[in-house]
């Protein structure tokens, strides 16, 4: 039930954000972890470690991530596959998004998406509001790292002259497109275990008033297709009160169902932590990596109601 949490904890990194960020690249794959076991213990040390292990052209794993997609596909990605991967790394995509973002035809996508799924690069994640139109989501960590951080400027990375500058330029892409998806998966796993839902995924909700789609990254559904929890998550930034207001606004767009609400982040404004709503769960990064709280034991002194005849 909590496989991702246990895998992240197995790295032995005490700081939650650093543990999530390292795991977003390596998973728990021994082949990608340093033989001496030395991993960054602070987020500020992450950049130097990534440069030494993955980003310098002579580093142990530069060519591993550069050739990851080809290794999984059994051949170099063709132009269509490359375009789909470059788009999907930015966020999960529906088929409509894929057509609009890649300019590929429906037939071309019908040919390439199953190949990428079979290779373990993408997976069709559930879309509860449109079950026949899943969110195509990047699943391979190392390929995701490459497409997010290195691929846009691969020739410059290979030359190795300005690695530090390239990391500075692409640091935000690492946070947003590599570490953040790992944190969202961890938050979804937490909500899944906490609610007993059948699935937890993202949703996009039409907002007719403003003619927009509102996205929630945490949406839990039971096995009958009914929502039981909605939530929002923020990676490495303080969650502000307007995000909770937005969450409640999207809840109203869905018909105001009776669901739990989750706010998951590293830090929160007092307006969130002090909110009196009994349906609200405020969860920090340390808690999603912690052991679940034990169920309270029944009071041994409590009177047991008599059995009915």
Notes on the structure:
Residues 290-309 are annotated as: Disordered. This protein has 309 residues and is an alpha/beta fold. 46% of the residues lie in helices and 16% in strands. It has 3 domains: 3-68 and 142-189, no CATH class; 78-139, Winged helix-like DNA-binding domain superfamily/Winged helix DNA-binding domain (Arc Repressor Mutant, subunit A, Orthogonal Bundle), CATH 1.10.10.10; 195-289, Trna Endonuclease, Chain: A, domain 1 (3-Layer(aba) Sandwich). The chain contains 14 helices and 9 strands. A hairpin with a 5-residue loop joins strand 4 (212-221) and strand 5. The longest helix has 33 residues, at 163-195.
SS element count, helices: 14
The profile of the biggest β sheet is: 5 strands, mixed
Beta-strand segment tally: 9
Order of neighbouring strands in the sheet with most strands: 3-4-5-7-9
* Helix and strand composition category: alpha/beta
Percent range for helical residues?
Answer: 40-55%
Gross morphology is: globular
On the 0-100 scale, what is the average pLDDT?
Answer: 93
Order of helices and strands: HHHHHHHHEEHHHEEEEHEEHEH
How far do the termini sit from each other?
A: 39 Å
Low-confidence stretches: 298-309
Spatial extent as radius of gyration = 21 Å
- Number of discrete domains: 3
Q: Quote the beta fraction.
A: 15-25%
How is the topology of this model organized?
Blueprint: H1 3-9, H2 16-26, H3 46-55, H4 62-66, H5 68-73, H6 79-88, H7 95-102, H8 106-118, E1 122-125, E2 135-138, H9 141-150, H10 154-159, H11 163-195, E3 199-207, E4 212-221, E5 227-233, E6 238-239, H12 241-253, E7 260-265, E8 267-268, H13 270-273, E9 280-284, H14 285-289
Parallel strand pairs: 5-7, 6-8, 7-9
Antiparallel strand pairs: 1-2, 3-4, 4-5
Helix pairs in contact: 2-11, 9-11
